[in-house]
């Protein structure tokens, strides 16, 4: 599960994916388990939920390069594009609205496009978090 965003700009609307990952880590009781993984240039926490092993990932790059971290982590943890969930902001959704998208185009989102390019696939499931238009 990758929370897309701009790593150094916490609290901004474009980093909502990372905020969701922080909340998920708290709910799974692994919030103290974040560690820097230099191999994929990301913060990583490992968790288990409902019998599934999860890799929580917050890329330490700007949004348009998040895919490099996601692709490196996929290789390290032997994950295919279909195993990856991207959590990201969506300008076209009202604030707080949430939708799941199963693969397809990036719909103009630079972080998702970076992941599609780096993984050479558009099969990743996306959790789109509405932030509305400013």
From TrEMBL:
A Pfam family that the UniProt record links to this protein: Pept_tRNA_hydro
Keywords: Hydrolase, RNA-binding, tRNA-binding
Superkingdom in the source lineage: Eukaryota
Gene Ontology molecular function terms on file: peptidyl-tRNA hydrolase activity; tRNA binding
NCBIfam families in the record: pth (TIGR00447)
PANTHER family associated with the record: PEPTIDYL-TRNA HYDROLASE
Name by which UniProt lists this protein: PTH hydrolase
């Amino acid at each position: 599960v990758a929370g897309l965003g701009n790593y150094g700009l916490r609290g901004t609307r474009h980093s909502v994916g990372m905020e969701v990952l922080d909340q998920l880590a708290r709910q799974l009781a692994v919030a103290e388990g974040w560690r820097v993984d230099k191999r994929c240039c990301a913060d990583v926490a490992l968790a288990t939920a409902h019998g599934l092993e999860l890799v929580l990932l917050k890329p330490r790059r700007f949004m348009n390069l998040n895919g490099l971290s996601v692709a490196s982590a996929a290789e390290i943890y032997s994950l295919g594009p279909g195993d990856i969930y991207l959590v990201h902001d969506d300008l076209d959704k009202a604030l707080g609205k949430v939708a799941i998208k199963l693969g397809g185009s990036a719909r103009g989102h630079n972080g998702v496009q970076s992941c599609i390019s780096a993984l050479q696939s558009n099969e990743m499931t996306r959790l789109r978090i509405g932030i509305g238009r400013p």
